[in-house]
């Protein structure tokens, strides 16, 4: 479980996050949603310690990352996997090399064991046989999946994903969503996903935190989201006619279904 | 304003260097990456060094002979001047200015690209000391290989002059080789090698620094690599003055 308490972050005097508090639960897919520019990436980077907020606490199962020194943060990060907005695969390594990288750096396993583990992770994300290619030779969706495989290689307790399906077609997006959701439940990971994809919100949102202009505006799950009377959230989630129809349908039937 | 800015930049450079010079997370990876960098930054520069040196060596010899025609000047002066120019300045300062363009821009753009595509963040998130992991192998690898490049440069420069003597009738071979050996001062060789080590450190660390702190996108990576080359060239020239004063007086 990760608790974020009263986090404030500004850049050059401009406040981006205003006193944000949120709780992210283990074994659940926690979503951070919000408009482009609302501060989702800043919040995620603050949580993992890539940015340093001016105020607040960030507790990983009780351990406050803000009070840690460099060594302690390094140790904590061995429990963290992260998927970046642009995949961030190492260009100079093959797909297999990318997945083997954290294993090489942080375990004392033999090369054979490392190879097996990396192969297993690649199979887990349905990427058999692409191990010898370089990141520039595979498609965007495959890159995302390689990045997921790399992030889960060390069996992380916490998994962070910054827009895992931006720039992907709807079918691939759903595959990635389901993959993340499955992994989360299978290994009881605390997964935090940044997204503005409504399919993900309504499909895998077990705990949704809505950020509006740097304020935490709303918290709930994918069922509650249909019944909210929060104006900003309604405008954001049900922005087009299709989703409004879905909302009407769901409300009249009172059971949440995934829009197809 | 300019002064405070440069002091602030120097301060950040020092903090960066402190992170670079920490104990590697994994020695095995460090060594294999260092070998890789020696090949990429060092060995791959040999052809460039050879081509430039042969031509400059030849040109210096021709220039000396054509411009120094007075009968009062002793016959060995052409070889001697070629040798001393190469040993004192060309094989270290000028060579490093050229390498700053090749190696410096390579390092800055490589690390800068890794920064803007979040690959450095990815390393940090894994708990790797990214500055140390990426930069130390480059600095160490290039430092170790620098004397080899200087050696190649000196040898091929002399060869360039020798070819002028051999294939043209500007100067005779015996006069040239006699000049090369006349009044040799061994310290000049050491002086050149010592200077080149300093310059090699400037090239790799300054370029890495500029690349590591890129903010933005591809445009900024290009700017950073230009800035890296300009700054390291200026630093090399400054350092040249300081070291010459210290080592030759
Ligand atoms: N390093 C930085 N320096 C200055 N301002 C920044 C920095 N990073 C982010 N910001 C500002 O913070 C605001 C929020 O940015 P952020 O990247 O968190 O948005 P986001 O919600 O992730 O948007 P998107 O969905 O488009 O990724 C933006 O207005 C941006 O200009
Ligand atoms: Mg973002």
Q: What would your notes on this structure say?
A:
Chain A is an alpha/beta fold and 260 residues long. Chain A has ten helices and ten strands. Chain A has helices at residues 40-48, 70-77, 95-106, 111-124, 140-152, 170-187, 198-204, 224-227, 231-237, 241-253; strands at residues 2-11, 14-24, 29-33, 55-60, 63-64, 80-83, 158-162, 190-195, 207-212, 215-220. In chain A, the strands form two sheets. Chain A has a six-stranded mixed β-sheet, sandwiched between helices. A four-stranded antiparallel β-sheet of chain A has the order 2-1-4-5, with helices on one face. In chain A, helix 3 packs across helix 4, helix 4 packs across helix 5 (140-152) and helix 6 runs parallel beside helix 7 (198-204). The mean pLDDT of chain A is 88. Chain B is an all-alpha fold and 249 residues long. Chain B has one domain (2-248). Chain B is built from nine helices and no strands. Chain B has helices at residues 2-20, 27-42, 46-67, 77-116, 119-126, 130-167, 173-181, 186-212, 218-248. In chain B, helix 3 packs antiparallel against helix 4 and helix 4 (77-116) runs parallel beside helix 8. The longest helix of chain B is centred in the middle third of the chain and has 40 residues, at 77-116. In chain B, 42% of the residues are buried. The mean pLDDT of chain B is 93. The complex binds adenosine-5'-triphosphate (ATP) and magnesium ion. Magnesium ion binds next to helix 1 of chain A.
Task: Give me the secondary-structure topology.
The complex is a heterodimer of chains A (260) and B (249).
Chain A: E1 2-11, E2 14-24, E3 29-33, H1 40-48, E4 55-60, E5 63-64, H2 70-77, E6 80-83, H3 95-106, H4 111-124, H5 140-152, E7 158-162, H6 170-187, E8 190-195, H7 198-204, E9 207-212, E10 215-220, H8 224-227, H9 231-237, H10 241-253
Parallel strand pairs in A: 3-8, 3-9, 6-7, 7-8
Antiparallel strand pairs in A: 1-2, 1-4, 4-5, 9-10
Helix pairs in contact in A: 3-4, 3-5, 4-5, 5-6, 6-7
Chain B: H1 2-20, H2 27-42, H3 46-67, H4 77-116, H5 119-126, H6 130-167, H7 173-181, H8 186-212, H9 218-248
Helix pairs in contact in B: 1-6, 2-6, 3-4, 3-6, 4-6, 4-7, 4-8, 4-9, 6-7, 6-8, 8-9
The complex binds adenosine-5'-triphosphate and magnesium ion.
The site of adenosine-5'-triphosphate has 11 residues of chain A, from helix 1.
